[in-house]
Amino acid sequence: MVDRIVVGAHYGLKDWLGQRITACVMALYTVLFAVQALGLPEMNYANWRAMFAGGFMRFATFLFFACLFYHVWVGIRDIYMDYVKPAGIRLALHAVTALLLIGYLGWAAQALWRL
Amino acid sequence: MSSRTVEFSIYRYNPDKDDKPYMQTLSVELDSTDRKLLDALVKLKAKDDTLSFRRSCREGVCGSDAMNINGKNGLACLTDMEKLESPVVLRPLPGLPVVRDLIVDMTQFFKQYHSIKPYLINNEPPPERERLQSPEERDELNGLYECILCACCSTSCPSFWWNPDKFVGPAGLLAAYRFIADTRDQATSERLDNLEDPYRLFRCHTIMNCVDVCPKSLNPTRAIGKIKDMMVRRAI
Fold this sequence. Notes:
By secondary structure, chain A is mostly helical. Chain A has helices at 12-38, 45-53, 55-83, 87-114. In chain B, 30% of the residues lie in helices and 16% in strands.
């Protein structure tokens, strides 16, 4: 088969925009987290646990992790696009990365709701 | 009239004779009238006529004498000898196949340029005199049409090094925006469709090497940002 160069996947904009929006969410969460953590009367396990016990902080933290993993997905895929040329290896790396990130998100949810 | 000797280290490669490229040390005596790097190269060529490089207009208009000068892409005819550290290290533009010495094969660069259809697309019959624009509409083209296609920008862009066959590159994208921004062009949507791709446009990660090296002081990064803005406005 002639190895023709194919482009035109039509998904660049969504990911580019998604990366920027998730960055904004992570920046806002960082401020929220800093305010909450610095506002603790004392840095111990009980206070730390109480901080994440509220529904809002739990949801915000989960949203932060969801944004982080989407951000990472786009960034890592960019690296594969630049440096990994064989399509089979790249597809395998995509699959491993996507599964890992989905797993991490589940792990984050489990940790947050177990508190 | 004062004269001085300048040392050069120049990339040499003749595929007919050399197994692999090598750096050759050369020196040349320059007069006070030899102010630009191209003047020095012409003198070097007079001493050793096997040294190969492109040059034509010698005033920064044709873009033929683009090369890597002390690690940074630029035009030999616009580069002041006084500002160069000795020895002056000259290499061909990075990322493109070398034809010989400082001459590169620009086929891939021009293929990307042609892929963005660098011409006005307007299917209406041409008016008797000209297609008019307001002064504001015309101003939008400033900083875009002046590109001389020297390839200094695209060959300094790591995204173009990794994907020269898929990423349009800063020069091609600057030209793409030149036609997207042109109110006389009727193919705006098709042009945006043509670029909406993770490789063709979105390999640009805004590192701005292109802006740093452009000998015409153009800003491809800004043009690329405006293309992305238009895509967002179209999508939402």
